[in-house]
């Protein structure tokens, strides 16, 4: 009886093995015959069968069939998520039997193999083309996991995350999408990706998050991969400038330009950077000058108000003396009372001024020092503006039709003319009678120097509003000089 039962069990096990093998063999045979639709139907039925679903071979076979579907662009309608199903099937094969049983090696090779990578990328591309960016990201980021040394998958996974965020607009979970994008672009960079646009995009994301040092470190890594890349250098300069590190931006761009002296765009960028730096110096100079003037004005006010107080005190002493001689004189007493009230008021005014002086002193405001500093800053502004002009001229030497260089040089001479005109307007009548016509000739000449640059810029871009407004103002000013019979004297 015992021997008979043992034989039955052996036969049952053999029958089950035979059933499993037959089912799997049929599915694989259909796959090899190219009948993937029928192979899919067969394997789907197999994994639903309790006796078969506990076998690693069943799930491995499903992985193979779905992987083949994902790799065939004509069979996308069978299952648009076939690559993900294949991946999950291989993972399931490792679960139903510990580490996949005897098939562990084949299963693990399938999970990290080229076929699985290609299937996942194919699915990602199809999802991207269908504008299902979330699904595209899921597939491509999985492909990046399958092949950790790859650059293509993380690049497109990051782009897919960006597109998903853009497509959803205000409804997007931007923090999540930004994290996904950064992670994938970081993988891309770590694997030696050579697309400057991806590197620059990653750096800009960090910069937008106020992580300036991380943005610059990203660009430094990128420039080791792509040394001398102009776009990466320009992005680096832009980030330095936007973070207030103008001197660093100038140094960085100058270093690049010195190595690439024929690069017109870099010369233009340097000119603009020096232009902005000169404007910064001018603002600081004005602030220092205003502070210096305020300190000087306070000192003068104190001196003036003290003189008034001294006058009141002298008059009060005189009235007091007179009252001693005429103790019953009511008018003298009234005058003294009024004057004493004025003395009290004047002392309060003096106290207020003294408080203001102390406040300025606490700020470290030294009127004379401030005015000296303003002069030094003005000198720096002039020198920096000259450097800017030099680089604009270098641009035009190579590219005479460059709009920005022509327009900005026109602005340079126009502003110089405007500054000189202010000096003329502030002349006394005596000075103007003596030197006015001669000085106005130089002012006119400075304005006239702007004309050819504005005219050239207009020939390049006729519809620029800023240019047209500036040109109209310039033409009006030159007509005014002509109407006054002022001969324009041009200087360098």
UniProtKB/TrEMBL annotation:
Entry coiled-coil feature ranges: 329-363
Pfam families: TPR_17 (PF13431)
PROSITE patterns for this protein: TPR (PS50005)
SUPFAM superfamilies, sorted: TPR-like (SSF48452)
Manganese listed as a keyword: no
Secretion signal, residue range per the UniProt entry: 1-23
Membrane-spanning ranges: none
Keywords linked to the UniProt accession: Coiled coil, Signal, TPR repeat
Spans of repeat TPR: 196-229
Cross-referenced InterPro entries: TPR-like_helical_dom_sf, TPR_rpt
Entry-linked Gene3D superfamilies: Tetratricopeptide repeat domain
Name used for this protein in its record: Tetratricopeptide repeat-containing protein
Organism: Fibrella rubiginis
């Amino acid at each position: 009886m015992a021997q008979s039962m043992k034989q039955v069990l052996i036969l049952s096990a053999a029958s089950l093995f035979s059933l499993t093998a037959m089912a799997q063999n049929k599915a694989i045979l259909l796959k090899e015959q190219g009948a993937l639709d029928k192979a899919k139907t067969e394997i789907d039925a197999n994994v639903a069968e309790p006796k078969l679903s506990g076998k690693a071979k069943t799930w491995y076979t499903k992985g193979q069939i779905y992987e083949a579907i994902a790799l065939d662009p004509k069979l996308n309608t069978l299952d648009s998520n076939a690559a993900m199903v294949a991946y999950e099937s291989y993972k399931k094969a490792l679960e139903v039997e510990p580490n996949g049983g005897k098939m562990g090696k084949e299963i693990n090779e399938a999970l990290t193999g080229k076929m699985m990578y290609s299937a996942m990328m194919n699915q990602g591309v199809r999802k991207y083309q269908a504008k299902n960016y979330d699904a595209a990201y899921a597939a491509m980021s999985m492909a990046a996991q399958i092949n950790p040394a790859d650059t293509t998958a993380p690049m497109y996974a990051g782009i897919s995350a960006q597109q998903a965020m853009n497509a959803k607009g205000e409804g997007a979970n931007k923090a999540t999408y930004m994290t996904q994008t950064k992670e994938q672009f970081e993988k891309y960079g770590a694997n030696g990706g050579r697309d400057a646009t991806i590197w620059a995009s990653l750096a800009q994301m960090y910069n937008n998050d106020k992580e300036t040092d991380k943005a610059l470190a990203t660009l430094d890594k990128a420039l080791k991969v792509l040394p001398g890349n102009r776009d990466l250098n320009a992005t680096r300069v832009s980030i330095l400038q936007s973070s207030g590190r103008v001197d660093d931006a100038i140094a960085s761009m100058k270093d690049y330009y010195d190595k690439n002296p024929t690069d017109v765009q870099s010369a233009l960028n340097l000119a603009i950077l020096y232009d902005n730096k000169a404007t910064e110096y001018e603002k600081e100079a004005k602030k220092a000058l205003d502070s210096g003037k305020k300190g000087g004005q306070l000192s003068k006010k104190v001196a003036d108000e003290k003189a008034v107080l001294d006058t009141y005190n002298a008059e009060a002493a005189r009235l007091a003396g007179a009252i001693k001689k005429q103790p019953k004189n009511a008018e003298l007493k009234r005058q003294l009372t009024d004057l004493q009230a004025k003395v009290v008021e004047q002392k309060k005014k003096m106290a207020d001024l003294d408080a203001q002086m102390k406040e300025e002193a606490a700020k470290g405001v030294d009127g004379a020092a401030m005015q000296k500093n303003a002069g030094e800053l003005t000198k720096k502004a002039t020198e920096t503006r000259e450097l800017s002009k030099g680089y604009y001229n270098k641009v035009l030497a190579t590219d005479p039709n460059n709009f920005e260089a022509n327009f900005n040089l026109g602005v340079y001479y126009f502003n110089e003319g405007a500054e000189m005109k202010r000096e003329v307007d502030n002349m006394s009548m005596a000075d103007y009678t003596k030197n006015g016509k001669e000085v106005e000739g130089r002012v006119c000449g400075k304005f006239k120097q702007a004309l050819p640059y504005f005219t050239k810029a207009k020939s390049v871009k006729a519809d620029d509003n800023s240019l047209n407004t500036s040109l109209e103002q310039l033409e009006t000013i030159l007509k005014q000089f002509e109407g006054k019979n002022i001969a324009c004297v041009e200087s360098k």
